[in-house]
Amino acid sequence: MNPNNVQSPVMASPKKRSIKKIVLITISLILVAIGAIIFTVFSATNEQANVSEQFVSALQTNNVDVAYNLTSPEFQTSTSKASFATFVAQENSFLPKTKANVTSRTLNTSSSTPMSVVVATVKSDVTISDNYTVTVNLVKLDGKWLVQNIDIKKA
After folding, report:
1. Quick check: 65 and 87 in contact, CB under 8 A?
2. Contacts of 83 (CB under 8 A, 6+ apart)
């Protein structure tokens, strides 16, 4: 066999990808990215939602100590525990006892102190006219989310 007569292997021409396949791959990647963003947002705001739900539950059960301990030092400076107990008693008298359903969450990390707003709906188990929207503003201090203020409105 002559070494000068060695033939190089024939290279197959690359397959042409169809436009449909490229579009499907692109759409798939976009959907994965959107899913990752949604997962990240909900993961990043899950702790705030939990604190909000605990706070609303404490209001509903007239548990002043638990609710007050979930508030920020600034809140506690401006609102005595006795004043807060009066507020809790008033809210407890009309706030439905059903579980709060978180309807929106926002996170603001642009300042040195992260803040978050969690909006929940407390639905009446009796009439639709007795539904309430609870907006809980939170602040993160020393790695812990605390209630800065709360707004309760009849929906």
Report:
1. no
2. none
